[in-house]
Amino acid sequence: MKKQLITAGCILGIALLTGCATPLNSAQKQELQTYQAKGMAVEEKSPSTAAAFGLLPGGGSFYTRNVGLGIVNLLFWPLSIFWDPVSGHDGAESINYFATKAAVQKTMTKELREIERNLDEKTITQEQYLRKKREIETKYASDL
User: What is the distance between the alpha carbons of residues 63 and 21, in angstroms, rounded to a whole number?
Assistant: First the structure.
């Protein structure tokens, strides 16, 4: 019985310190910060709102589309208020990171296709094309 209590305490301690959602790694955080500084970041979910909803039964997880975790956190409420705000915050950051990556890639591809079309139509020279292509690639680089 004592061993089970210690094991349960360790699991609860880990959950309290880490939350349930997988946070962004340091490279992803740096990349997102770079896009935020360039004004290119997409915010589909607010990390602060997700953390606030984490105080409600399963709210942070439901807000960040983690229905399974939301149900678990609902069942463990009120204990889940110790980890669901962190989980919700991390989940919102993750959603925003992947939304930003997709939006940046889509916009960059659109701009590259446009200058390729201009080259094909001979409205720009090969030299102009290469210069504009480099500018576009630099503009959308995450500097990693």
Answer: 12
